[in-house]
Structure formats: structure tokens, C-alpha cells
Design goal:
The protein is mostly helical and 159 residues long. The chain has one domain.
């Protein structure tokens, strides 16, 4: 049974990964679908503005905090090696660290950077916009599922 400070750490991990699952899900279900209906110049400008807003403390605290918590859970699990929940704790950490945080670095951020280099009204932006929305949303869906799965397996570790 997970107890004491380790229990609190895992509960914080549940909260962090759960919040990120909700953010990613809401973005895929609402935001990118709405942006996709805009003319390319408006969609590109709006998404670039969102990407700038995303690197502010409100989002980054939750996003990076969930990654730090997941890494801490993995390290503590290796050190403590609890009788119950070890597999779930390590799996939850891997799901968030690789499926959410890592995927952001290798899939979503490069697309954001490419979009940021485009002038919203330029022909290249109009051509790239539908590709960006499709690819970025696909990877965002994976991040949402990975974050939700991390949350579920962390909860299972506590039961």
C-alpha cells in the first residue's frame, strides 16, 4: 500500500496528468475544430497567438509540473519499490513523460515553430494550415489519451 508522502506525490501526479488530459482533450475537441473553420490567415494568426500564450506560467506550470511529478514518481518507485502498484506507477510515468511531454517536444512544438515562421496571409500559410491542423490535432489526441491513461494507471496504483 502506498502511504505517507509517496501517496501525496501520486495524488498530485493524478491531478497533474488529469488536468493535462482535460486541456489536451478540450483543445482537440473544441479549439482546433473551431480554428479549422476559419480562413487560413485567421486560423494561422489565432493559433500563433495561442502558442505564444501557452508558454506563459499558467499553462507551463501544469504541463511541466505534471512532467516533474511523473519523473519523481518513477524515481521514488525505483527507490522504494512498493509491494503494490509498482507496474502502474512506472507505466503512468512513462505514459506522461513519453506520450505527452516527449510527444510535445518531437511532434507538436516543431509544427508550432514552422507555423510561427509563416506570414498568416501568405500562400504558404494557406497551404500549410490544413496540414498543420490535421497533423497537430492527431498528435494532440495522442497526448490527451496518454495523459488520461497515465491518470487512470496512477489511480489504479492507489487502489
Amino acid at each position: 500500500m502506498i502511504e505517507g508522502p509517496f501517496f501525496v506525490l501520486v495524488v498530485a501526479g493524478v491531478l497533474g496528468t488529469g488536468l493535462m488530459a482535460g486541456i489536451f482533450c478540450a483543445f482537440s475537441v473544441l479549439v482546433t475544430r473551431g480554428l479549422a473553420t476559419l480562413p487560413p490567415a485567421q486560423g494561422v494568426a489565432a493559433m500563433n497567438a495561442i502558442n505564444v500564450a501557452a508558454i506563459r506560467p499558467a499553462f507551463m506550470t501544469v504541463f511541466m509540473g505534471a512532467a516533474v511529478l511523473s519523473a519523481m514518481i518513477a524515481v521514488v518507485t525505483f527507490v522504494v519499490w512498493p509491494d503494490d502498484g509498482t507496474v502502474e506507477l512506472l507505466l503512468g510515468s512513462a505514459l506522461y513523460l513519453f506520450g505527452s511531454f516527449g510527444l510535445t517536444v518531437v511532434a507538436n512544438v516543431p509544427r508550432n515553430e514552422r507555423l510561427a515562421r509563416l506570414t498568416p496571409g501568405a500562400p504558404e500559410a494557406a497551404l500549410y494550415w490544413p496540414v498543420y491542423v490535421r497533423e497537430w490535432t492527431l498528435w494532440n489526441d495522442v497526448r490527451a489519451v496518454a495523459s488520461a491513461a497515465a491518470t487512470v494507471v496512477y489511480v489504479l496504483a492507489l487502489t
